[in-house]
Amino acid sequence: PLFLDVLTEVYPDAQLVMTHRDPAEVVGSCCSLIANVRVMYSNEVDLKGIGESFMDTFEIMIARANAFKAKHGPNAILDVQYADNMRDPIGTVKGIYKHFGEVLTPEAEAAMERFMANNQKGKFGKHTYDLADYGLTKQGVRERFKDYIETYAIPVKD
């Protein structure tokens, strides 16, 4: 959600969905991804720098999404809980289609069901990371994004 105004200028009929997830999980996952990409191009990767940088980036992303909603109305972005998507992915997609007045064809639903059946969680391993590697803690991340967690009623677990 860094460049939503530009996105909707180029694609004025875009239908925006924002998935909300425990910030400690988002930050940890993204830091791990960034570190794994950087290690391909550098012998020295500053993990704590990645942690600090992505914390700032995540804060900017939230602020920009909120500013976009303030400018274009609260329904400019459909908010979806990551936990709901993980619990019932097809049901979540059905809700998104319904929200936007789109038709989810039986063929598309069947294709999603096949994809889900052939790509069970963990099929390609588990993405593991440790916030401590990036100089962060769950509590620290959640404290910084406390307002975001509360605003969007994001479930967090320890």
Folded structure, characterized:
This protein is mainly α. It contains eight helices and two strands. Helix 2 crosses helix 3 (47-72) and helix 2 (23-41) crosses helix 7. The longest helix has 26 residues, at 47-72. The chain is globular and about 50 Å long. The model has no long low-confidence stretch (mean pLDDT 95).
> Widest sheet: strand order?
1-2
What shape does the CA trace take? globular
- Give the mean pLDDT: 95
Note the beta-strand portion.
5-15%
Uncertain parts: none
Largest sheet data? 2 strands, parallel
Summed up, the helix count is 8
Helix content: 55-70%
Radius of gyration: 18 Å
Q: What structural category arises from helix and sheet content?
A: mainly alpha
Q: Sketch the topology as an H/E string, one letter per element.
A: HEHHEHHHHH
Q: What's the quaternary structure here?
A: single chain
Distance from first to last alpha carbon: 27 Å
Number-wise, the strands total 2
